[in-house]
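Render Cation diffusion facilitator family transporter in 3D.
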Amino acid sequence: MSHGHGHGGRGVSRSAAGALRWRLQLAFGMVAMFFVVELVVGLTSGSLALISDAGHMAADVVALGAALVATRIATRKDVTGRRTFGSYRAEVFASGLAVLLMLGVAVYICIEAIGRIGSETEVASGPMLVVGALGLVVNLISIALLRAGASESLNVKGAYLEVLADTLGSVGVIAAAILVSSTGQQWWDTVVALAIALFVAVRAVLLGREVLAVLGQHAPAGMHPDEAEQALSEISGVVEVHDLHVWTLTSGMNVATAHLVTAPARAGHASADTGTILAQAAEVMRERFGIEHATLQIEPAGSSACAQTTW
């Protein structure tokens, strides 16, 4: 009266991030190399905007590296027999790490900016401008690589948002260099650094909400459980739907469970065909709500199958 799908051998084809692994690898290589350049120039030029952007670039390196590790774990076949849903959640945890890194960078920038209040720090605007322009090019290439997968994988989306935020950071560095050079006012460097910190923090909070929604097993975005319950109850032969649960396992993989109560057989009438009901219910969940994996249980009216459930 129910059906299930194995998860062991389908991980590679079902994981959206796995198919985009080469994009993550290329972006990781470029960002990692440029991080070293930006950090060295930032320290030698005395630019807080450049150092803050380098710190964000470091977060990019860690986030992209974690994303790569997560995609490897997510696509790995389970050999323990205990991970019945596979290891797809590794991608969500990687996104959570990206959130923490982004918040950490934002806090660091704010602390450094406060420490510079009232001090006269000389900033070399020339190196800032050159490195900011190079960083912009690197980030734009990384955005082009990751944008295609940002809508398919929360893991890739975390890396994409990291790079997107750093792109604006590069623009900020360029703006700070031009302002410092044209006005002679060093505090422009600090102002731009704080603006970068604010943007990073906002993006981190938005991504964090998505991560918590998945880990909290909320209903998938754009779907309301009441609508699914109503759709299932409209199937011929179904008189009640209960214990409906819908949640996101990882990006692009929504799952559901439900108990369907069927009408009792009447004199002169055959009882509802359970196979037909299950097929129709599975089609409703797949076609109307995008849920390919729905575990559905048939219960005849008056059954006490759920009577002993205590939660």
